[in-house]
Amino acid sequence: MTLLLTAHEVERAAALLRAGELVAFPTETVYGLGADARNGRAVAAVFEAKGRPHFNPLICHVADAAAAFAETVPDARARALADRFWPGPLTLVLPRRPDCRVDLLAGAGLETLAVRVPAHPLALALLRAAATPVAAPSANRSGQVSPTTAQHVLDGLGGRIAAVLDGGACDVGVESTVLDLAAGGAALLRPGGVPVEAIEAVIGPVARPLPLAAAEATRTLRSPGMMLSHYAPSLPVRLGAREVAADEALLAFGPAPPGAGAVWQLSESRDLREAAARLFAGLRWLDAEGRRLGLVRIAAMLVPAEGLGAAINDRLQRAAAPR
Ligand code: TXA
Ligand code: MG
Predict the structure, then answer these.
(1) 237-320 CATH pick, 3.90.1070.20, 3.40.50.11030, 3.40.50.300, 1.10.10.10
(2) Which of 189, 92, 148, 165 is nearest to 276 (CA)?
(3) Nearest CA to ligand 1 atom 18
(4) How many CB atoms neighbour CB 204 within 10 A?
(5) How confident is the model over 133-165, as pLDDT tens digits?
(6) Looking at ligand 1, which atom is closest to the CA of residue 29?
(7) What is the number of the ligand 1 atom nearest to the C-alpha of 113?
(8) Superfamily assignment of 3-218 in CATH?
(9) Most informative mutation of 54, 85, 91 for ligand 1 (most atoms within 8 A of CB)
(10) Given this model, what pLDDT does residue 220 score?
């Protein structure tokens, strides 16, 4: 059985982590599935619980920049970004220190390590109490929609993990931006909660990933988790909807065309922050409601590509990709 722990039970959650158990916890982006990153068996159990087909490197979560830079080698750019954006939805890929304590499996054997300081008070309390780096992918079964509530975690992983720490709904709603600083340049590996434009205001130009289809075709992905089909509801997804049919479930952004079998509004006022926060819950709801009503697909309206819109469109394109 999976325990549902409240904010008062952070110490208990931390004790479970230290004992090598898996504990899901809230972050400002999505819920993470945490394991003690120094414990190879606990890290292996993360891949098993998620049903991940291969060892995709995990992000190490720590309570502050000093803890992140105790395991990695930061340069001036990494320090500047940490100052500006941590705690917050930015993950930095940096060289591992020779004395890095994080188990190699957590980094999938790479010479680099992804680190981030999450901006959720319960996540920070848990990291301080556990006093260890915590490896945590999103707390969903592999390929499925990321969880933004404790109930979403239980729906996917209940019975497979020791506990979920309940911190309510996540307020950013899309995962962290992943930035690779390890290879000399600066490369965006995943658009996310910190817009790339805001990163460029601190460190200058950042290389953008190839468009999804091209990246898949040429197999130039540096970030193995960026598989094309991901975040996938069970119903097929159609992008760029302007009209909608009665047998479709509509993911709306702003004023919605009439006639859909079911509608989830991301943001009536076309506010990208509100839309990001409501994205994964909406995909889950439309999928369940659409199947209940016998609808055939989810139709998603276009979202502008700037700022958080880049992260939203990235998740929608993956949800719509061929499986
Ligand atoms: O917001 C988030 O980042 C959430 C919360 C829980 O913190 N976590 C999350 O983890 O989204 P996950 O495992 O679903 O995605 C981690 C991404 C993957 O695309 C993975 O390939 C990439 O980060 N990554 C991790 N370590 C890496 C490394 N050393 N080099 C390149 N990419 C790495
Ligand atoms: Mg994920």
Answers:
(1) 3.40.50.11030
(2) 148
(3) 225
(4) 9
(5) 999 999 999 989 999 999 999 999 999 999 999
(6) 1
(7) 29
(8) DHBP synthase (3.90.870.10)
(9) 91
(10) 44
